[in-house]
Q: What sequence folds into this?
């Protein structure tokens, strides 16, 4: 078995585990809400609210979050077109989806990239919030598998893109 086939088999196994085996009424109700944490509407609203309404450090964090969000979104759009990977609910038999079906490509997860770009920027600016923010971002990524939209590698790719943009924007000299 080639490395690519082995990785793909692991990706499908983990997807089915989250999408099928973890299935329960409580998660059916809560996971779509975690997906919303990675939506463009939430990310833009949070970034703008903190950038415009916050005090000095919060305002800076809001602008950093906005830049990380926009940058990660552009990379995600580019990669989706370049990789062209179909969403799991379109190709895997028995995969269920709880969200509105999307017809664009799967890799990397834009919702996960958005949630990690926000979480990491705010965690770098307010370290006491690191665990709650990164946990919420991780649950957003998990929710994307649970609702049937992404493979685990899509989520990992999105988390990496979001975190890297957040770190780069935060590290930029803002003085």
A:
């Amino acid at each position: 078995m080639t490395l690519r086939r082995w990785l793909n088999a692991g990706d499908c196994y983990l997807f089915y585990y989250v999408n099928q085996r973890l299935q329960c009424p409580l998660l059916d109700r809560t996971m779509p809400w975690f997906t919303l944490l990675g939506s463009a509407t939430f990310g833009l609203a949070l970034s703008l609210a903190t950038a415009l309404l916050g005090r000095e450090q919060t305002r800076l964090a809001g602008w950093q979050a906005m830049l990380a969000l926009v940058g990660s979104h552009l990379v995600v759009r580019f990669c989706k077109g370049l990789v062209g990977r179909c969403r799991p609910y379109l190709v895997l038999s028995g995969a269920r989806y709880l969200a509105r079906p999307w017809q664009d490509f799967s890799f990397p997860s834009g919702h996960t990239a958005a949630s990690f770009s926000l979480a990491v920027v705010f965690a770098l600016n307010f370290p006491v919030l690191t665990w709650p923010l990164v946990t919420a971002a991780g649950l957003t990524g998990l929710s994307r598998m649970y609702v049937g939209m992404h493979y685990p590698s899509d989520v990992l790719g999105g988390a990496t893109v979001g975190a890297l943009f957040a770190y780069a924007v935060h590290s930029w000299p803002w003085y």
The mean pLDDT is 92. The helical segments are 3-21, 25-36, 40-53, 56-83, 88-91, 110-125, 130-146, 152-171. The first helix runs from residue 3 to 21. The chain is about 75% helix and 0% strand.
